[in-house]
Amino acid sequence: MSRVDETRTWTFLTNHAQVLLCLDETPDIRLRDVAERVGITERATQRILAELVDAGYVTSERIGRRNRYTVDRQHAMRHSAQFGYEIGALLRALS
Questions:
Q1: Above 70 in pLDDT, residue 4?
Q2: C-alpha distances in angstroms, 30 versus 34, 37, 49, 75, 77?
Q3: How far is CA 93 from the centre of its chain?
Q4: Domains of the chain: which residue ranges?
Q5: 58: helix, coil or strand?
Q6: Which residues contact 93 (CB under 8 A, 6 or more apart)?
Q7: β-pair type (66-71, 58-63)
Q8: Of 2, 42, 48, 70, which one's alpha carbon is 20 to 30 angstroms from that of 18?
Q9: Dihedral-angle region of residue 65 (phi above 0 means left; psi in -120 to 50 means alpha; beta otherwise)
Q10: Residue 9 pLDDT more than 80?
Q11: What pairs with residue 59 in β-bridges?
């Protein structure tokens, strides 16, 4: 395996984090475009969005023919290692 191939076997951020970043940066983005940016299928993007909505990280509002997504930046991070941190801190660091 070459050095380039090794770096493509894992990433620092999960697909959930990548989708959250896309929605935060471009609230009226199409899920098709999110999928393309993240490098996953549109179906996987829909599943991740549903999980983020169910967990309270994202709300979705229909405006005309498009959806507009709002990320709750005050929502707590999920992992115990980030106890006491809000998701907004992560989004600010990565933006």
A1: no
A2: 6, 11, 12, 23, 25
A3: 14
A4: 10-94
A5: strand
A6: none
A7: antiparallel
A8: 2
A9: alpha
A10: no
A11: 70
CATH number of 10-94: 1.10.10.10
pTM check: above 0.90: no
In tens, the pLDDT along 22-72 reads 999 999 999 999 999 999 999 999 999 999 999 999 999 999 999 999 999
pLDDT of residue 51: 98
Cα–Cα distance between 88 and 86 in angstroms, integer?
Answer: 5
Pairwise CA distance, residues 90 & 9, whole Å: 23
Residue with the two structure tokens 């998701």: 87
**Closest residue by Cα to residue 93 from 73, 75, 79:** 73
Q: Quote the tokens at residue 85.
A: 């941190």
Helix and strand counts by DSSP (H, E) for the chain = 5, 2
**Count of CB atoms situated within 10 Å of the CB of 37:** 16
